[in-house]
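User: I'm writing a tutorial on reading structure tokens. Could you give me a worked example: one chain, its sequence, then its tokens, then a sentence or two explaining what the tokens reveal?
Assistant: Sure. Here is the example chain.
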Amino acid sequence: MSSFIKFLGTAGGRYVVARQLRASGGTYISANGQNIMLDPGPGALVKCAKSKPPIDATALNAIILSHLHIDHSNDVNILIDAVTGGGHRKGGVLFAPREALEGDDAVVFKYLRDFLEDIVVLEAERNYKIGDIEFSTSIKHQHTAETYGIKFNINGHNISFIADTRFFPELIDSYKGSDMLIVNVVSHTLPEKINIKHLCLDDVKEIIKKVKPSKAVITHFGMTMLKAKPWILAEQLSNELGIEITAASDGMTIEL
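And here are its predicted structure tokens:
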């Protein structure tokens, strides 16, 4: 059985998501008999159905939310409903930060929660398991919501997803040892006087240079990244750093 990652959306930032200049369905991971949806943003269910070949949303084993923001969590409830047949069967495990499950901004409907096999609260630098797939969380990110990166161990390879965050030096140590690094880069550049808690291209360059993965993928593009043509930026970074760097596109599949 093949193992792969499929990008159901590469949109980042409100403008790109609202106008669907790139899709925003999140990332689908299929490995070792486990089907996982990471950060199912707006359109995740539709992207599953229209994928070639189609992805069966009712066969998901797990859903992971890196944080509660709507471009990362919008379709979590409809996916829970799909996995569990509207509550007619127990199914699936949800992994999410506590903030996504409790308080005024909780994003998971209470009536759906008992449908799941389990709900696991994510905390910083902890180990988790989905079937035979192990993953861990990163250091807590510096974002406007409780956010963690996700680091999978799949067939002996460390595949890390750096979710939304501003740059801080400890990020680099948290992701060292990654064989593949998939990084959300919303902005091409960041204005010095504006406190935006997202990575820009220079931040990503610094992270990749010091983590030294075998391969890196940039995704989750805001408007300034789209205008700068991320596929060209990725090629330039590859040539400069001597590391294979790819700009994700909607529907792109990476075989593992």
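What the tokens reveal: The two ends are 11 Å apart (CA to CA). The mean pLDDT is 96.
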